[in-house]
Amino acid sequence: MDARFAISFLGRTAATSLVVLSVAVLLLIGLLPRTGWYRTMTVLTGSMKPTFAPGDVVIAQSTPADSLQVGDVLVYRVPVGARQVESHRIVQILGRNPLVVRTKGDANETADPWTAIIDDNRVWTVRGAVPWVGRAILWLRTPQLHAITTYLLPLLVAMLLLSAIWRRNDEPEPVLDLDVLYRR
User: Fold this and answer.
1) Which of 36, 44, 62, 140 has the smallest count of CB within 10 Å of its CB?
2) Cα–Cα separations (whole angstroms), residue 102 to 44, 69, 79, 85, 98
3) Cα distance between residue 43 and residue 51, in whole Å
4) Could you report the per-residue pLDDT of 116-170, keeping only the tens digit for each?
5) Exposure of 46 by Cβ count < 10 A (0-12 exposed, 13-18 middle, 19+ buried)?
6) 3-class DSSP assignment, residue 55
7) What is the largest CA-CA distance in the chain?
8) Would you say 93 and 70 are in contact if contact means Cβ atoms under 8 Å apart?
9) Which CATH fold topology does 36-133 show?
10) Can you point out the beta strands (E) in 24-154?
């Protein structure tokens, strides 16, 4: 009896710990960034290896633009192409009013072919990285999973619903005895 109690206790403790950890991760990554104290972003490319790698989650904090220095990792929108959000290290400050910087990924051989012009008084700079946390997000972005959720999952749901509708019921329907219903 004691072994069953111990196993049951350990199972409940593990389940409670998992729930508490899940709620903490939800708060830290999903909800608290909405307050503006910090932002979390999943790294999609390896341009900043070994500082952070694809699948890591970086934590960026709002910083006054005039306090930026060479060596800070800046989060900004690339001024060309698709204008994706980039996290690269500042390698050169070309001007202060407005702030004009040249950036480079740590894993890249050369600096980025553009200059970033920062018009705001505050910018986002990377303060830390949490390894591996964003792997699930990278996995959710794969074309295979997109195809599964777009085509296969709705097809499976439709088949289950149709099978429930067309399922034969082998049990005979109960016969109502009208004499019993109308007896007084």
Assistant:
1) 36
2) 21, 11, 12, 15, 13
3) 11
4) 888 888 999 999 888 887 787 778 778 888 888 888 888 988 898 888 888 766 6
5) middle
6) coil
7) 100
8) yes
9) Umud Fragment, subunit A (2.10.109)
10) 38-42, 57-64, 73-77, 85-96, 99-104, 116-118, 122-130
